[in-house]
Design goal:
Order of helices and strands: HEHEHHEHHEHHHEH
Number of helices: 10
Domain Polyphosphate kinase-2-related: 42-266
GO molecular function, one term: kinase activity
CATH architecture: 3-Layer(aba) Sandwich
Keywords: Kinase, Transferase
Helix content: 25-40%
Strand order of the largest sheet: 2-3-1-4-5
CATH superfamily: P-loop containing nucleotide triphosphate hydrolases
EC number: 2.7.4.-
Strand content: 5-15%
InterPro entries: P-loop_NTPase, Polyphosphate_phosphotransfera, PPK2-related, PPK2_PA0141
CATH class: Alpha Beta
């Protein structure tokens, strides 16, 4: 493979690298126009009912992954505020953290920077019966790091060469790799950033990196297009989730994730709770313990 040092510029005026323009965020549709608001976004009442159903299915999928001993990696990438964290939160809301766990790695240490690039991610890969959700992943190298100048052109080129082989190796070893890219338009990203900025309790979500990423929106589009050019492989293809409508994006992503498995209902049967076993033991006086003040 030749060195990937030529980047693709998006068409003039296109949203998120020109792959599509999502005016309302509605994808597909439920078939009932009453399920959508005037702006085309999904109504909360519809979302709540469907999310509850999907979360029940995620629990069933969790049991299936355990029983079958599957090893599953789900990668969530995309721009800041695109909705990656929101869908991860809904996936983990009712599942067990022992089976479905999140890997959100911090900035690498100096020691980690000296390691093979993929090394610090490998230790978070799943064992049998586990599903790991990567809230950003090794694709930091071809997206955030390249856009912000945190890696060299040689490091970037080497990543694009080696990443497809790394993922093929994971698949050959029995790991299921599913990759989602959450796509948000410039206007919607700006609206979300402005909302965070206006709310003191949410302002912590608006980092210097987010501001820089918004400034370099077009360059991030170039990074995403180049990443797809080299890493959208048949063994681990990219799935794009239009996310201008957060609620619809969450439902679409989770529905697609569930569709990737031919799972069955193997939830455990109702168990009989045991009675307390009596034994000769006298507990110390309650007054010797320090209790939290009863303010409520």
């Amino acid at each position: 493979m030749s060195r990937p040092d030529k980047h693709i510029a998006p068409p003039e005026g296109a949203d998120d690298a020109g792959e599509f323009v999502v005016a309302t965020g509605k994808v597909g549709g439920t078939g009932n126009p009453d399920d959508y608001k005037k702006d085309g976004r999904l109504k909360s009442t519809v979302y709540d009912v469907e999310m509850e159903r999907l979360q029940e299915q995620l629990v069933l999928l969790q049991y299936w992954i355990q029983k079958q001993g599957l090893k599953v990696v789900v990668i969530f990438e995309g721009r800041g505020s695109a909705g990656k964290g929101g869908v991860i939160k809904r996936i983990t809301e009712r599942t067990s953290p022992r089976t479905v766990r999140v890997a959100a790695l911090p900035t690498p240490t100096e020691r980690q920077k000296s390691q093979w690039y993929f090394q610090r991610y490998v230790e978070h890969l799943p064992a049998a019966g586990e599903m790991v959700l990567f809230d950003r992943s090794w694709y930091n190298r071809s997206n955030v790091e390249w856009v912000m100048g945190f890696c060299t052109e040689d490091e970037h080129a080497e990543f694009l060469r080696s990443c497809p082989e790394f993922e093929r190796m994971l698949v050959r070893s029995g790991i299921i790799v599913i990759k989602y890219w959450f796509s948000v338009s410039y206007d919607e990203q700006r609206r979300r950033f402005e909302a965070r900025n206006a709310e003191p309790l949410k302002r912590w979500k608006l980092s210097d990196m987010d501001l820089a990423e918004h400034e370099f929106y077009v360059k991030y589009s170039m990074a995403k297009d180049n990443t797809f050019q080299y890493t959208d492989i048949k063994q681990a293809p990219w799935y794009v989730v239009p996310s201008d409508d957060k609620k619809a994006a969450r439902l679409n992503c989770i529905s697609h994730l569930l569709s990737q498995f031919a799972y069955e209902d193997v939830a455990p049967e109702v168990v009989t709770l045991p009675e307390m076993k009596q034994m000769p033991y006298v507990r110390p006086p309650m007054g010797e313990q320090t209790f939290v003040d009863a303010r409520f």
